[in-house]
Amino acid sequence: MSFNERTYIMVKPDGVQRGLVGKIIARFEERGFKLIALKLVQATEEHLEKHYADLKGKPFFPGLVKYMASGPVVGMVWQGLDAVKTGRAMLGATNPLASVPGTIRGDYALSVGRNICHGSDAVESAEKEIALWFPEGVAQYTQAQESWIFS
Ligand code: RTP
């Protein structure tokens, strides 16, 4: 358990196109996480292949990269108690058909190929993804600003 755990959450092109960015941000804010980085970016296929390197051999990999490059994404870093695990729970199951209502995918998505958002699946992958998407670094809060809901 870590109070200052960080996770990389990304609204995918379908989520941006459908105007769901604000709703997804609101869920993380309302849950109590702290936003430490945020950007809208049109990712290249090369960059997305690095992000999804672990899935390279999967049959859906080429389609996944094309989908992710089809429009801008919104990448963000949220920090707080067990951010990785809780972030994944807030997203819901990868296939929205299995996502329970109340989760982001369970409320807004139907298809695994258009499942609206990404969330890091482990602390190590979160740190890799944060370095890949935010090489310039993330916000540094002062000690006074660091007193947050759980700290
Ligand atoms: P994500 O990385 O997007 O948070 O998703 P995840 O960990 O829940 O799932 P993962 O297995 O890493 O798959 C990454 C993304 O690939 C697409 N996918 N398509 N057509 C298919 O069978 C299939 N399976 C996975 C989804 O967009 C999934 O989020």
UniProtKB/TrEMBL annotation:
ATP binds at K12, F60, R88, T94, R105, N115. The active site is at H118 (pros-phosphohistidine intermediate). Keywords: ATP-binding, Kinase, Nucleotide-binding, Transferase. The keyword Calcium does not apply. Residues 4-141 form the Nucleoside diphosphate kinase-like domain. GO terms for biological process: CTP biosynthetic process; GTP biosynthetic process; UTP biosynthetic process. One of its GO terms (molecular function) is ATP binding. Its cofactor is Mg(2+). Its EC number is 2.7.4.6. Gene3D superfamilies: Nucleoside diphosphate kinase-like domain. It comes from the Eukaryota. It catalyses: a 2'-deoxyribonucleoside 5'-diphosphate + ATP = a 2'-deoxyribonucleoside 5'-triphosphate + ADP. Belongs to the NDK family. This is Nucleoside diphosphate kinase.
